[in-house]
Design a protein that fits this description.
Number of helices: 7
Order of helices and strands: EHEHEEHHHHEEEH
Oligomer: single chain
Number of strands: 7
Shape: elongated
């Protein structure tokens, strides 16, 4: 929307621009009209492209949220700054409620909200896994036990994450934390069966 006038004052023209007009051209300076139209068309095309990009971004975010909500575990992104320090979560999916009985907001606010759930014997191996993966820019993998926040139920969990990028010297990983208790119980049952079979053979 462009205003071409020789009658309205500058104040009215400014108000019209603030209300959404693209430009104001005085009738005494019509040489500015064609450049103003071309600039307005370019701006309109840029706005159209921006709306398309924003719509695609909203669709992608909605798909990611739907995917994260339906994964059998907790989707996360974490950042690790330096050796000797714990990382912190940058993103945590709603799966945290079902797996850890913690809200994503609790985990984002303080990594200790996750750390205190871990079995003491499994904390140091996880810390070492962080340091090793950060040093090598490699995949992050770990298995251990944790007790859920409210019920205290002990679960075996598996953490698997891929290095994404470095941000100001800090390593960032995207990953998934899953409950592997049933798998561990099956492995234990299989091991007991093998031991019984060996004893019987003996």
């Amino acid at each position: 929307f462009l205003i071409v006038s020789g009658a309205i004052g500058e104040d009215v023209a400014v108000d019209a621009m603030l209300a959404g007009a693209d430009d104001y051209v005085m009738k005494s300076r019509l040489a500015r009209l064609v450049p103003a139209i071309e600039r307005s068309l370019r701006n309109a095309e840029a706005r159209r492209r921006r709306r398309e990009v924003e719509a695609k971004l909203r669709d992608s975010e909605a798909r990611l949220r739907a995917l994260a909500a339906n994964l059998p575990g907790m989707l996360f992104q974490l950042q690790y700054e330096a050796v000797g320090r714990l990382p912190h979560f940058v993103f945590v999916s709603e799966g945290a409620r079902g797996l850890l009985e913690r809200s994503p907001q609790d985990l984002l606010a303080d990594f200790d909200a996750f750390w205190v759930l871990l079995h003491e014997a499994d904390r140091e191996p996880l810390r070492e896994a962080f340091e090793r993966a950060a040093r090598d820019g490699a995949l992050l993998g770990w298995e251990g036990r944790l007790a859920t926040a409210e019920s205290g139920t002990v679960h075996w969990v598996r953490l698997a994450a891929s290095p994404l990028r470095e941000v100001e010297g800090a390593q960032v990983w995207d990953g998934l934390l899953t409950d592997v208790t049933a798998l561990k119980q099956a492995e234990d049952g299989l091991r007991v069966s093998h031991e019984q079979l060996r004893a019987l053979s003996a």
